[in-house]
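Q: Joint fold for the lines below.
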Amino acid sequence: MKFIKLKLKNFKPYYDKPGIKQEINLFNKDRKGKNLTLNIGPTGHGKTSISEALLWCLFGDYYYNNWEEFINTLSREIAKQRKVNKINISVELVLEIEEDYYRLIRHGIYDITKGQKVSDSELSVIHAGEPISNPIGFVGNHFPPLELMTYFIFDADDILKKFEENRKRAIKDHINKIVGVEKLDGMIESLEEVVLSYDKDIRNIEIGIHSDVSDKIGEKEKDKAQKEEAINHLEREIQSKKEEKQGLFYSVSPEIKKFSELVDEKDKLEEEIIKLNKQFVESNIVADMDLLLIYCIVDDAIEKLNQKQTTKEEFETSSIVIKSSLGKDYSGIFFDDKKNTCLIKVGARIWDEDLDNLEKLNLKSGEGIKSNSMSTFKKYKKKISKLKLDFEDYKNDFDGTIKALMMVENKIKLIGDTTENRELKDKLKKYNDIEDIIRDKKEVQHEIREKKKLIKKEIEELRNELKLNEEQKKKIEQIIKKQNETQILLNIAKKSREEFLHELLSYINKTASESLRSTVKYEDKQRFHSIEVDSNYQFRVKQSNGKALKERQINLGYLQVSMMSFFFGLSKFLGKKIPYVIDDPLLRLDPGHDKRLIKQLCKTSDQLIFHMIPGKEYTTDSFNWLKPYINIQNWLGREEYKGLDYISYAECKDPDKKIYFNIDKF
Amino acid sequence: MSKEEEDKILRVIKRVGKEQKNGDLYFEILKKIFCHISKYENVPLDGRVQNIKDIIENFEKLSKTLDYALKLNKEGNDFGGK
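A: Joint structure:
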């Protein structure tokens, strides 16, 4: 899609005066391949009015209901003088879509005598000389909704200001605007409150029974919540220290770069160990650990029996010891011709044909092993075999990772002890200091977790003291059941939010990162490598090694470029190929950054329309690097009319020559 | 928020809910809660909490009846098939 021309009649500073062309050419099809339109003019000459005209043309009263404020003041004066009752205001946009032309005409009538608009403005869309039947539908099909047009028609200075005032809020607002995640956040917040509300319901029942005990429970619950908050706070501090650690070894020195790789490897291995521990705790290995441990002991005992001569007494003693060690859960041990060993759980039923093998254990009859005609025994045999394999796999992974970590730690220590590099010594000292701080914080975290477990146990004991009657117990059980169900709903909602945002954020992070890398200087490409916004709206700039830069490591110029890269990623996500109309595109960007960012936009966008201030953004230097892309350039001038007011006009200039202006006149 | 955007969110909730046992039931509850939130976004939090608890409790009762199960099967759903 391309904007070809804009015709303005009595719209803001564009007065419909004979002899003054109120047409603004936006695209010259004879200069295809060049897609940049420049509207150059000092402040107050009508640049922003062009953006407003476009939006009013497309969305009318929905964009701005009080459009009578758009009526050119001169036209009101002159209409009064000539005793004309009504003023017409209109904006016509000619656009091209796949080589087909459309004229969108927004028109309104204002009654001067009554001081109000005659009616709502109207839109017509003319195609091949005929009006189409559904002009509103035409706009709906080809343009995003009004609230999303801000990603195509905007003031770059305003966008950057909002990011700088409150970055997280700005990112949240943008993401919510595009995918509407705020409603989902609202649902999650409400479900969290419902879960807490069930806690209150339980407390109310408890208070009714024994207020002292209930008060104690309440205090303990508060204490537990405070401990949870302390654990979370420490976790945030630990993460912050980890990020500080990550940025420590950035340097151009090859020795430090190589050392940095070792440190990265150490961090990865430590993360791997945490992950393996977590997997172990959540796995079925822990759930069936008693089975596995006894199995390992028995297996070992049998191997020893096979290796040395054993007297009958020794064997009988061992059998009794093992049998007594099995405790109340297991009634015996089975092993077959293939030397598979299995424990027999109490209540397990054994195949008749297996009974003969059981005799090999030489247990006295009537003791230990029970047999019936059916068997679920094989289930346990299979379970233990799998458990054994899982444990072996886990153990190999864990041992391998520990071994690798020890090797890397030794290398780091060796380099630290032997290096003559002063910078490296200092950085290593800081690194070790941070590691100590992290270790201390983790220890404190662990202590608090242990205390929290104790409090939980105390709460359970206090609850037992309450001596609830059956009805109360049943009520509390029902509430807990509903609370658990609500927790499941909450987990689904949270997971949905993650998935929902994931698509948007994956795309934007990728697009914004590509934009950033194209914009930064060559020597900074490794440092300012990618942008990452996460589901908590945290914005990070990352190096090529994946480490995030701290705020103080990013200068303002690069931060602005990163913000704009993110912003353009948002509009690309919308997937609408409509022109960008940008006020003050170069005002806030550093020289060099502006050139690279704009060059990149010129290559990737169908049409760009820039509103630039002469002397500040439009200079000889900027014209020279913009020149290869310029399709049309308009000078927005202003002239006084009959001593009444100024009116603006657009004058099309040679796109291959810089427009000369006298800055002192502004 | 447009209907299209709401439907998109509900589609994701349906897909995630399917991973859960009784996923269809949970989806129906969340759909109702989500629509309630959309409709009454200016209602204060504590007001919404009681309404949501009512929704959950009503569905619990409904889910126990055969009628509801039949209704669910008959109507299918709009978000990715049965």
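Q: Anything notable?
A: Helices of chain B lie at 3-17, 23-39, 45-63, 66-75. Chain B touches chain A at residues 1-2, 5-6, 8-9, 12-13, 15-17, 20, 26, 29-30, 33-34, 37-38, 41, 45-46, 48-49, 52-53, 56-57, 60 (CB under 8 Å).
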